[in-house]
Design goal:
Number of strands: 38
Radius of gyration: 25 Å
Strand order of the largest sheet: 31-32-34-33-35-36-37-38
Structural class: alpha+beta
Helix content: 10-25%
Shape: globular
Strand content: 35-45%
Distance between the termini: 11 Å
Length: 646
């Protein structure tokens, strides 16, 4: 196959979601959707519900550098869309966000984010996020957070001197704005009650270099008061948090919902905001953390909670929605992963997502009045003609006797014996894999590989002990579990030991490389996408955001960096290595892959680095993803001595 050609399978599995965001107007009459176009582009289109199937295009982006990420309706004819871009600021490439407003007919496009002044003593990278849609006003007014930057005072009598995060009331039509919360240098976020009132403020200690502490202070207001009162303190050691973390306010109950880990696992609690500080456990489990609220509507009303064991589960507090969820399970038996995406102002029309392990999912519209459920759009329509592979939750015993959970995906129709196999550790490492559709795992399964995704120790969701000192500081434990996963595949007869590989993205890429340092002959091929390769270099990249104590708790000391950095052990590698990296990656610098490749070449090892121009960590370009899939598959087939793909 020529280097530039792409297989049909790679194009289908590598395609970005056809639709990545759906929102409904307050009156429930229109939908706004972000749809993918060729390469990395996207458009915002508006569809009239009940009309013809024609969609009106109102915004477009070629994805270079701007990317449309999310949209919402401020009125029945006014839409706000968040735009992310990477541009050069003071000589460095860095990510920025801005909020745009546009009418539903595509007219009156305006910047809703606060405009930057030429006299400012810096640049606000964030353009502000919507805190409250102010639904009752129906005049297009919203509450947005706003990072204020002081201005030069010389020669300017009206210079703005405040600095820090505040809250503005913004009219999305006229762009008139007024300050609701005075900016504070230590403020990191605010939470409203969904009705236009700021009730929670979160602060973090600052140093001369910026945010530096590993403690968050939460404050609340009583109804009708402007005075801030202490609510809770959350301390963070590395990645393990202790203390109540506020997430959402229920104005009717006058409580704040949040998570805390009082019983080994994180659970959902609520605290009264009437001054009594009464704290109640709402929901917890003994086996996994319960941290995800289910919210609905323009007021983001809390209606339930969800958690993941081997699969994701939900519990609803709202009786009507509990009944509806049960009925929906019967209506969509093959799509058990259901979530609420958006709702009209009266919550009579709901936008839903439903999917499974063998279905990337579809967006649906449910009308309570007519009890009609209609499909809006499939997320990965190019995969409809492919047979996808069921994902099976499994567990294996690690070398120290601990049971490690994970997910096994076999090629369609396979008996699961003597296969070429891939261990695929997740990114983060402060994350976990869940049961559901995974385009990367499904592609490799389609190509004939068994794919195993272990939730190694260092993953989130299983309590503080499982999370431990993070996958970097406690890398031996995480990498030990990942290598034990490979050995388990062989011991079960699933994997041919001569055809075992490892593939990972971000932290998963780090794990793929570091696994070869620990056990050089276990894996016969290594693919690392946007990997960390030197823990010490990563610490340097993060030092402006975290205090020395926080960095040490997360990454460890110089001895950890020396032992745990694959770039410092290039001589240990036996298997060939393939690296992919976007050259404007904001999460992990491309210098990490360049260093790894250079040192492997210096030791005479087999390595190839593929750089993608003007792309960041997620490689959000369908053509590039297809190229990457084909190159990775061809590389693995060569290294594992497999037949060419059909």
């Amino acid at each position: 196959m020529p280097a530039h050609a792409q297989s049909d399978a790679a194009k289908a599995f590598g395609a970005r979601p056809a639709v990545s965001d759906v929102s409904i107007s307050p009156d429930g009459q229109s939908l706004a959707m972000i749809e993918a176009t060729a390469g990395r582009g996207s458009v915002v289109s508006v569809l009239k519900i009940g009309g013809n199937a024609d969609r009106k295009l109102i915004l477009a982006s070629n994805g270079n550098p701007d990317q449309l990420t999310s949209c919402g309706w401020s009125t029945n004819d006014r839409i706000l869309c968040n735009v992310y871009m990477i541009s050069t600021v003071f000589g460095q490439r860095t990510g920025q966000t801005r909020m745009l407003g546009v009418n539903a007919d595509g007219t009156n496009v305006k910047m809703v984010s606060a405009r930057q002044s030429t006299t400012q003593l810096g640049i606000a990278l964030g353009g502000g996020s919507i805190l409250d849609w102010m639904g009752e006003r129906e005049d297009g007014t919203v509450l947005m957070d706003h990072y204020y930057i002081p201005e030069r005072t010389t020669g300017h009598l009206t210079a703005q001197s405040r600095q820090g995060l505040g809250v503005d009331r913004v009219n999305t039509r006229s762009l008139a704005r007024s300050m609701v919360e005075i900016p504070r240098g230590d403020a990191v976020s605010y939470i409203t009650d969904g009705h236009g009132v700021v009730r929670i403020m979160v602060t973090r200690p600052t140093t001369s270099m910026g945010y530096g502490g590993h403690r968050y202070e939460y404050f609340y207001r009583k109804k009708g008061s402007r005075d801030w009162l202490p609510l809770s303190t959350q301390s963070v050691s590395g990645v393990v948090a202790q203390g109540f973390e506020a997430q959402a306010v229920d104005s009717n109950l006058d409580v704040v919902y949040g998570t805390d880990a009082e019983n080994e696992r994180a659970g959902l609690y609520r605290i009264s905001l009437d001054g009594s500080m009464k704290k109640e456990l709402v929901y917890d489990r003994s086996d996994v953390d319960v941290t995800d609220l289910i919210q609905i509507g323009r007021q983001q009303r809390v209606v339930g909670v969800s958690w993941a064991t081997d699969r994701r589960h939900s519990a609803f507090f709202d009786p009507e929605l509990k009944k509806f969820a049960a009925a929906l399970g019967k209506a969509l038996p093959n799509a058990p992963l259901v979530s609420f995406v958006d709702a009209s102002a009266d919550e009579q029309k709901l936008v839903l997502y439903a999917g499974s392990d063998i279905d990337a999912g579809r967006y649906y519209l449910f009308d309570k009045a007519t009890k009609q459920l209609g499909e809006i759009m499939a997320i990965q329509p190019a995969l409809d003609k492919y047979r996808l592979s069921p994902v099976k939750p499994v567990g294996f015993i690690a070398s120290d006797g601990k049971t490690i959970p994970g997910y096994l995906t076999l090629p369609p129709g396979s008996d699961g014996k003597g296969l070429p196999a891939i261990v695929m550790p997740h990114g983060g490492p402060w994350a976990r894999d869940e049961w559901g559709f995974d385009w990367l795992a499904q592609f490799f399964a389609h190509q004939g590989y068994a794919v195993f995704q272990p939730n190694f120790r260092g993953s989130t969701g299983f309590g503080a002990d499982w999370l431990g000192g993070s996958g970097f500081k406690s890398w031996q434990r995480s990498i030990g579990d990942i290598n034990d996963a490979g050995k388990w595949l062989v011991s079960q007869g699933i994997a041919d030991p001569a055809k075992l590989a490892i593939v990972g993205w971000s932290y998963g890429g780090y794990a793929a490389l570091q696994s070869a340092v620990v056990d050089p002959r276990l894996y016969k091929a290594i693919v690392a996408i946007a990997p960390v390769t030197d823990i010490g270099d990563l610490q340097q990249e993060w030092k402006s955001d975290l205090s020395p104590a926080s960095l040490e708790a997360m990454f460890g000391d110089s001895a950890v960096a020396q032992a745990g950095s694959p770039a410092r052990h290039a001589d240990a590698f036996v298997a060939p290595v393939l690296l992919f990296h976007g050259d404007i990656d904001q999460n992990v610098s491309i210098a990490e892959s360049r260093t790894m490749a250079s040192r492997l070449r210096g030791k005479g090892k087999s390595v190839e680095l593929v750089e993608f121009k003007n792309l960041d960590h997620q490689l959000n370009d369908s053509d590039v993803r297809a190229q990457m899939l084909d190159r990775a598959d061809n590389f693995l087939r060569s290294a594992l001595k497999l037949e060419p793909a059909k």
